Amino acid sequence: ELADVITDLVTSTEQAAVVAGRFIAFGENNACALTKGSKSMTPLLTSTCRVSRARVRQLRRAGLASERFPHFHRALMDGQITMSHIDVVQPVWRSVNSGEFAGAEAALVALAAECTPEEFKEYLDEWEAVANPDQHLDEFIKAQAEQHLLLQYDLNGNLHLTGTIGPVHAEPFAQTVANRAEPIKAENPDRFRSATAMDALVDLVLNPDGKYRAHLEVLMPDVSRPARIGTRDTTSDTTPVRVHRDLGFSARHYPRTARGTLIPPAVAQQLRATSQVRHHNVDRYGNLTTDTAAGRHFTTAQRRLIRLRDHRCRHTGCTSSANRCEVDHIRPWMHYGPTLIRNGQLLCSFHHRYKHRHDPGPHRTSLFDDSPISLE
User: Which one is predicted more confidently, 214 or 349?
Assistant: First the structure.
């Protein structure tokens, strides 16, 4: 009995709303006085009745149904369909020929009376696909073209990911992330699902085959020890470092990421066990002993180490990150400046061009030779 009462109440509510929609349409089309000075019925109802603008538009569409599609209006008043069915058929009515729609309206009403608005929309989409395949082809191509991925760093060194994945790869992508997130959630039941999904996504990108290891660059003052690449650091002794000013590798006495974000020692110690460690010998002037002069341009290894050392534009007051900077010769190449790490610095494109156009502002003119390490 309660179910019957609720059904009758909802049906009566829909019918009353349709009648209200008829008066809304009449008030907007015929008499501005009925709106009590408002330009339309929408602001009057939103301010007086506290209903949303979307609800007012829905009521107005239902009120205009008797003029646009009478069969749907009759079925709506009989309680066979709801106003949501009107919302579904409205864009179809706008896109097709009015004569063709009038001829098919009776069949559409019979279909709408047998299904929910969501199911009715799916049937209409198939109907449109048969009538005009190119329309859905254009929509699909547009959806594929909207695929994009934006990577942006903030001031704290965090990487923000935003973007859209196309319909072809959307479902398998989401399923893959969900599958990877399940064991992470099992190990950390207190973590939110959004956090475990992000952990799974990072692991999917960085560790697709289980072979990814973080890269650690270790600066060693012992000049007698040759450089080693790809080995693990097992030593625990530390070397006292005297820092005169924040220049060169001498200031890298505290672990940092490539973008300059400070890494707590406990985290660095944890990374050390599984990371790929590159050892670099540093002399008492803070320069790499294995660095040799290149040609006109810096080598890939030199660029990487310069980015690790500077992590931002070296022009005074500029905070442009390393990925927006270019490697510049401190002493210009044309003035016989060597292509060494100690003669390289990061400058953003603006300050790089500005320097070579006789920048009057402060910029570094000397090499990185601040004698950072005291050997005992």
Answer: 349
- Residue 370 C-beta-side C-alpha neighbours within 13 Å: 15
d(CA 344, CA 337): 10
Q: Which amino acid is at 177?
A: V
Positive or negative, the CA dihedral 58, 62, 67, 72 is positive
In the predicted model, is pLDDT for residue 143 greater than 80? no
Instruction: Give the Å distances, CA to CA, from 199 to 9, 182, 190, 216.
Output: 49, 11, 14, 21
Tokens 């910029």 sit at which residue? 363
CA separation, residue 101 to residues 60, 68, 245 (Å): 21, 10, 79
Burial class (CB in 10 A: 0-12, 13-18, 19+), 87: middle
Structural domain spans, the chain: 2-142, 148-206, 215-281
Give me the pLDDT at residue 100, please.
79
Q: What is the mean pLDDT of the chain?
A: 72
Strand-pair partners of 153: 159
Give the C-alpha separation, 332 to 330, whole Å. 6
Does the global pTM surpass 0.85?
A: no
